[in-house]
Specification:
Blueprint (H helix, E strand, L loop, with lengths): L10 H4 L5 H10 L5 E2 L11 H4 L1 H7 L13 H15 L5 H4 E4 L1 H13 L5 E6 L3 H9 L3 E6 L8 H7 L4 E7 L11 H14 L2 E5 L24 E6 L12 E4 L5 H11 L5 H13 L1 H23 L5 E2 L8 E6 L5 H12 L1 E2 L1 E2 L9 E6 L5 H20 L1
Helix pairs in contact: 4-12, 5-12, 7-8, 7-11, 13-15, 14-15
The protein binds pyridoxal-5'-phosphate.
The site of pyridoxal-5'-phosphate has 13 residues, from α7.
Length: 393
């Protein structure tokens, strides 16, 4: 029996890193006129025709009770068709597709469905921080394998990290935070390794439409490893629907009943109004995202041009996806201090590499998806001026 004393939260939650993004947002809020190169969202909102569904939703009597746990069947069916047409994944929705409140919830559901406390999940560093947090919250251990100097997956090191406790390898392509797109060959090799070692491959494809310079997105779920591949998608970026909270989980059939138990406990169903909007957004299709991509690509080129002109300050490994650059800064200063000084003294915010599990060297994530050309140029110029002043001053 516990002796009475001051109440505390669980050790499990206490052991999880606090997200840095709200801290940076706090510094931004205290710095009028600061520009954020920190925000991981696209600049546009949902398709206008999808928004019009909201009025209809409100006046339809059957809209307000709980909806099916796995999502409304029309939406799941539409997603099944999308997966077949675009991703080469053949996944009948009835027992393979689940609508979640965003890709983050899809990941949490997946981890709870496949891991027991003490199990290990392999992440590639720099990782997407919410993946690491979800693994810790499930009382599991994230085994971090550093990517190579180009932020590509190091296949031998990944293989060597697999232990008897490993349950899954996670890949994110196009990647947050590096923007790197993994090749078909690398993703196929990881998927094969998972099959061989009897573990799952969790493939986060939240940025599938965001590729540049001819880079192509590849879905490992198309390789036919239906019993060990879990694919995750999001409408947050592609359709500018981050606050609506809609994502998808495509899972092996044998996990479906357990996933439903988790879904029913956590959320019952993704918000029904958001599902109605998502269905209409899927009808607009990937062309909606591509229509906006040229503007993001132009901002990307301009930022890259400016960052590449400063090799004494920083290096930016080549990347062709998402809307991030992950810059290595040539300094011994720690990334959090540097970030705070950049905001407070130079009015520009980035996200420090420590957020993504980088413990050696000073790295910064620079996000450009939400910015107009003018703001992006001013932001990156402040960043360069700030780095010059702080590092050389
Ligand atoms: C790789 C990755 N996965 C998932 C998410 C979360 O997406 P959602 O808004 O659908 O939960 C993000 C958001 O930044 C992300 O970068």
């Amino acid at each position: 029996m516990r002796t009475p004393g001051p109440l505390a939260g669980s050790a499990r939650a206490a052991g999880v890193q606090l997200p840095i993004i709200p801290t940076v947002a706090g510094w931004l809020a205290q710095t009028p006129g600061a520009i954020s190169l920190g925000q991981g969202v696209a600049y546009y909102g949902p398709p206008p025709e999808a928004m019009r569904v909201v009025g209809r939703f409100l006046s339809t009597p059957g809209s307000h009770p709980y909806q099916p746990d796995a999502g409304i069947p029309e939406l799941r069916k539409a997603f099944e068709e999308k997966l077949r047409a675009e991703n080469g994944i053949d996944a009948p929705f009835e027992r393979r597709i689940l609508v979640t409140a965003g890709a983050n919830q899809a990941f949490v559901n997946a981890i709870l469905a496949i891991c027991d406390p003490g199990d290990e999940v392999i992440l590639l560093t720099p990782y997407y921080f919410n993946h690491e947090m979800a693994i810790s919250l499930a009382s599991c251990r994230a085994v971090c394998v550093p990517t190579d100097e180009n932020h590509q997956p190091p296949l031998d090191a990944i293989g060597a990290a697999v232990s008897p406790r490993t349950r899954a390898i996670v890949t994110v392509s196009p990647n947050n935070p590096t923007g790197v797109v993994y090749s078909r060959e690398a993703l196929s090799a990881i998927n094969r390794l998972c099959a061989l070692r009897g573990i799952y491959h969790i493939s986060d494809e939240a940025y599938e439409y965001f590729t540049y310079d001819g880079a192509e997105h590849f879905s490992p779920g198309s390789l036919g490893g239906d019993d060990h591949t879990i694919s995750i998608y999001s409408l947050s970026k592609a359709y500018g629907m981050a606050s609506w909270r809609v994502g998808f989980l495509v899972a092996p059939e044998h996990l479906f009943d357990d996933l439903i138990k988790i879904q029913d406990t956590v959320i019952v169903c993704a918000p029904a109004v958001s599902q109605a909007v998502a269905l209409e957004a899927l009808r607009a299709g990937r062309g909606y995202c591509w229509k906006h991509l040229e503007a993001i690509a132009a901002v990307r080129r301009k930022i890259l041009e400016r960052l590449s002109g400063e090799p004494e300050l920083l290096s930016v490994p080549a990347s062709q996806g998402a809307f991030y650059f992950f810059a290595g800064v040539r300094t011994g200063m720690d990334d959090l201090t540097l970030t705070e000084r950049l905001v407070r003294e130079h009015k520009v915010a980035v996200i420090p590499g420590g957020t993504f599990g980088i413990t050696r060297g000073c790295c910064l994530r620079i996000a450009y998806g939400s910015l107009s050309m003018e703001t992006a140029v001013e932001g990156v110029d402040r960043l360069i001026r700030g780095l010059r002043a702080i590092l050389r001053g």
